[in-house]
Amino acid sequence: MVRSGELFDQLIVLIGVFLRNHYREALTLIYELSTEVSAVKQALNLTDADFAQFHTDERSYLKSLKEQPLNDRLQICYVQVLDDLAEQRLEWEKAREAANQALTCVPVGDIHQINAALSQARIRVDTAYTKLQHAETFTAHIEGRLRIEERWIIGGDEYNKYRDEASLQKYCVALDELEHLVVMCLFELSKLSLSSTGYKLQQQIGKVLQRRSDAIWNAINKYNAQATALNPPRPHLSWRDITEYSFLGEFDVLRYSRTDTRELDWTKPTH
To answer: Which of 99, 100, 142, 238 is 20 to 30 A from 208 (CA-CA)?
Structure first.
């Protein structure tokens, strides 16, 4: 039997080999990349300070994407609340109309069916009216937060503007999900290319990639659905489009986000 001390010694040796191999790889990369970076700096007239600024700009951009301005979020919410209010008002009107017609299909003299029909009609009217009151209260609350004195008209200019913003928000969520899955897939692929990755681990990574491929297909379908809902509709993406993306600046669909980053230096592969 192998003693615990021997196992520990073997583990130390394996860790040492692992660190030595990656240290050598790091030295090779530093040497090769230093030459390439020097050539890029000379070709593009860049300095070390420019690279630091690119990093700062990228971090600032990503930080700005975490949340929309509060006022914009409230106005998007207000549009959704107005839609809900209209639906609740329509349901209340339908409930009242149904209550007025509740006894038309009940046989004359059947007291049990009459009571049951009246009870169902009353419950539907009461439920619809309660929901309508809640919707009215919530709408008034949002209007107070936004200091809106005159309620927006559904179909009006302000309503349409933020309805489009709401659609764009859903679109951006679908885009973020798709981009996240693609990045994770590329990360797993990079593991497969490492010389130190064993066969069993390669098999496990292969299974993960298969699951990610299925998730990417679903994300593409969700993205295309949201792209179609925008006004004007955005171009659809295919699996081939996604497999050709290798850098952030190549995600042509980013031009439809709140901030166009395609012309910023830090998004370009040459930088």
So the answer is: 238
